[in-house]
UniProtKB/TrEMBL annotation:
Transmembrane segments: none annotated. The lineage of its organism: Bacteria, Pseudomonadati, Pseudomonadota, Betaproteobacteria, Neisseriales. PANTHER family: 4-HYDROXYTHREONINE-4-PHOSPHATE DEHYDROGENASE. Substrate binds at H133, T134, K279, N288, R297. This is 4-hydroxythreonine-4-phosphate dehydrogenase. Pathway: Cofactor biosynthesis; pyridoxine 5'-phosphate biosynthesis; pyridoxine 5'-phosphate from D-erythrose 4-phosphate: step 4/5. Catalyzes the NAD(P)-dependent oxidation of 4-(phosphooxy)-L-threonine (HTP) into 2-amino-3-oxo-4-(phosphooxy)butyric acid which spontaneously decarboxylates to form 3-amino-2-oxopropyl phosphate (AHAP). A divalent metal cation binds at H171, H216, H271. Keywords: Cobalt, Cytoplasm, Magnesium, Metal-binding, NAD, NADP, Oxidoreductase, Pyridoxine biosynthesis, Zinc. Belongs to the PdxA family.
Amino acid sequence: MSTPRIAITVGEPAGIGPELCTALQPGQHAARLILLGDKPLLQARARQTGSAVQLVDYAPETQPAPGSLEVLHIPLAAPCVAGQLDQANAPQVLALLDRAVAGCQSGEFAAMVTAPLHKGIIRDAGYGRFTGHTEYLAELTDTPQVVMLLAGRCDAVKPGYALRVALATTHLPLREVADAITPASLTQTLRILHADLQHKFGLAQPTILVAGLNPHAGEGGHLGREELDILIPVLESLRREGMRLVGPLPADTLFNPPVLAQGDAVLVMYHDQGLPVLKHATFGQGINLTLGLPLIRTSVDHGTALDLAGTGRADGGSLLAAVDLAITLAANQAQRAG
Ligand SMILES: NC(=O)C1=CN([C@@H]2O[C@H](COP(=O)(O)OP(=O)(O)OC[C@H]3O[C@@H](n4cnc5c(N)ncnc54)[C@H](O)[C@@H]3O)[C@@H](O)[C@H]2O)C=CC1
Ligand SMILES: NCC(=O)COP(=O)(O)O
């Protein structure tokens, strides 16, 4: 069997993505690592941050020399200075994703890993509907609904415990969150999460802890009706299908270790209900995985960190974890396919 190829998009050129990518050690992975980005930028950022890695041009059918990182060169539109955003380069950031997706769909790549991009500069450049990788990849692959899941090891719950936090809504203004949680969307989110806990994480009968939307999970309807009108009926209906669902639970106490220990994953209703807790517990080694896509996509748990770009001080642990997970998921998928 040939060595799997993993596409790694280097993300926002002014951020820490390029230097974290050139700090990867290809010899440590059972896969070919292909960096999708501007080659001169990657060479410059590697020099600036003290990486001696050998960057070679990607040729699909040619196995690179041991220890070298392959680069699929997609040029920037304008020169880039670390830490300084330039909307002229936004189309290139999206072109990296387009190329990675095309390669995953054709079978050229076994999986894709994304280094962080800057959502604001892409919007400033005129991509008015862009809200993040998750939504963009769903659109590119014609997937009506996907689920964002972040995960990291959290020994405070119990040794080796994997804290997995999935989101019922992703990058939405808070004002729009309640309206976005419908019986149909919540049902589909739980179906995708349940199926991927089984297939991607090997949990035969996963237990999902579901957070309420309102304070105290609505306090019996006195602090909001979404639990009574939407969450409880959806959970009851899916329980009748055999899913193990606990909740809706008040989000303020759900993340206490004894409660977390009863589940395999948490479903929160919105971005900042769950991710601050996850990042507090696991920042620097967490991963972000998009569930429900027809391809494997993992990512980092952090953003572009413009304040650190070019310094070589950014922690590469999360990118490493994302690459490792992509390789594992790709190997599992290949094994299932026979
Ligand atoms: N997967 C992605 O593409 C993600 C992109 N973002 C985007 O990144 C941009 C900046 O977001 P912020 O909220 O400022 O978050 P951020 O994660 O870029 O920075 C927050 C703080 O964490 C630090 N930090 C981040 N990554 C680090 C690392 N690897 N090692 C050490 N310290 C690190 C930064 O220096 C900063 O102090 C935004 O446009 C946001 O949308 C944010 C999260 C994920
Ligand atoms: N906070 C996680 C995050 O914003 C990741 O977004 P995405 O770009 O991976 O969709």
